[in-house]
Amino acid sequence: MGEPLRYSHPVARPQPSTTTERGSSRRGYTADRLDRHVIASGRRLWLQPMLEGKLTKSAAARTVSVDGGDAMVFLHTPRPPTRDEWVQCMEMLERRAATGGFSKARVLVVTDGGGPDVVMRGELQAFFKKHGHAPKTAVVTTSVFSRGIVTAVGWFNPNIKAFAPVHFQAALEHLGLTRAAPRLLRELTEMERELVPNSCLALIRDSGGSPQA
Predict the structure, then answer these.
(1) Do residues 96 and 19 both lie within one domain?
(2) Which residue, of 126, 149, 183, 196, has the greatest Cβ tally within 10 A?
(3) pTM of the complete model beyond 0.70
(4) What domain range includes position 68?
């Protein structure tokens, strides 16, 4: 789990206000005034998502149609998924299994450190056992903690591998999706808009997803 946010700018300690400006509170800054302070203080990266309610989400997921089939794509913040978010992820897997194409499923995960806890991993293991298949999975991360989760999941899914952001193309090779790189990056960038900025995804973009040497 990421470090709690700490703010040194005076905006983090709003004083009582009697303004009646539209959208204002009787105590503290309006969203517009807070946003202006955020820009001035260089703290927009974290505070702007907070204003938009994005800090309440820990993960985003979607199914992406690419050449050769579909890919299930997950983007995680440093925090573990909430219970509701995990249920949505499992429902996505269940829908995929219901189509009869789960044996061809491929999973791409980009994470800043968040991932399933021990209870969630148990549910994932039961799901794979129920359907008799563990999908090819690539986890792209810089987090030691996330690599530990990959090791734990590897006990019941031998098809999972972890990759550094600079080896994004190698991750896609593992999934057989090398030609889908531009599409997947676009989808991940759209998913990022639902969350706080993702440092791992930024590293992938900065490196150009260079193949592993």
Answers:
(1) no
(2) 149
(3) yes
(4) 59-207
